[in-house]
Amino acid sequence: MLLTITYQGWPATDLGYLLHKNPQRVQTFSLSYGEAHVFYPEVSEERCTAALVLDIDPVGLVRGRKKGANEGFTMEQYVNDRPYVASSFLSVAIARVFGTALAGRSKERPGLVEQKLPLEAHLSVIPCRGGEQMLRRLFEPLGYELEMEAGLLDDQFPDWGISPYYSVTIRGDVRLKDLLSHLYVLIPVLDNEKHYWVGEDELKKLLRHGEEWLSEHPERELIATRYLKYRRKLARTAMERLMDQETAVTGEEEQKEEQEAGIEKPLSLNEQRLQAVSRTLIGSGATRILDLGCGEGKLIRLLMKERQVKEIVGMDVSARALMIAQERLHLDCLSSAQAERVQLIQGSLLYRDERLSGFEAAAMVEVIEHLEPNRLKSFERVLFEFAKPGTVVLTTPNVEYNAKFENLRAGKFRHSDHRFEWTRLQFQEWANRVADEHGYSVSFAPIGPVDEQVGPPTQMAVFTQIS
Question: GO biological process annotations for this chain's record (predicted)?
Fold first, then answer.
């Protein structure tokens, strides 16, 4: 089994310091099921690749088992895919061989540990129970681009269909410790199998290695269930603890939103934004509308008052936010006819979702600036290429106006979770490019008082599909 990790940066040889493995040496590590070898097939200042090769002894695996694990003699114990595919054996090897890097430590390059780097990981063969769609569901929400290849089960019998074994490459700007933690958790999830007993220790490993990302992953329940080998009690405990993490994060987000609202309160910008977006959506004639990043459902509440609107779907990545929206919209108390108009769904804006297709309009109110800049391309495809609503209404802060807020320090964004804030020119350049690439026209409108020098506090783009 082969895993390679490639870094293209300057100097790329820093990968050796991050992995704590010298590029000039071949190193071998003894494992209970065989050996792991680490070497560097390419080393230069521009590009460096580290390879981890597992040499699994299938006979040794059987010898180590207690009688009763597999009664009697079967050839399957000796002849199987385990020596050749990425599985829980590889996860164990990652923890054993790259344990220091997985923990995020580097004496020689401590500053580099926390930097997002252009990294690529290639798995030569991985079994994927769920196919290409499963690979995308697991990796794309984490910001990766994927390349995958699967062949036929048997070239002589094409009717048998596609093999469940894939060659997979993932790329992204990511910290090395995050890449390793993603691989450590998701490889056995894809394989849907583990070679050892799953108990409380595995629950702790899942929560430790998924601490910084799993609670926000839209497939966290699937991940927990498969990782813990369908042990219901353990999976339920994992979800409860992940929900506790998300509740804490949501509490922090609510504090941040209060801070942002305090900055903008004199202008009542939030209400002005919602009213402007609602008017634009109604003016487009749309009857089926998406609210992407719906949060607690404030825009949905406005749209529910409009008889023209027959269906509203609010989507958010946070299950906790959707629970709050459910309560504040009082959906359980509505008549059946009214309740059928509104649906709340959990999902990510970073990978294709068939549930978003067929709508006449979509709104994103102060959402785009919370996305990582390197993920915008994925978002653009999801919304403008795949979902492709007739009208898209999108608002975002105008960073030029920040100088007008007395209680906002120079150089700071309005919200601590904003990944960027655009000037008017930057926003228009982005919107015009997206419109040109995906068959839309676009117009712009200010929201809030317009200053002669710095413009409005909020800027809005309205995309209209060209017939």
Answer: regulatory ncRNA-mediated gene silencing; RNA methylation
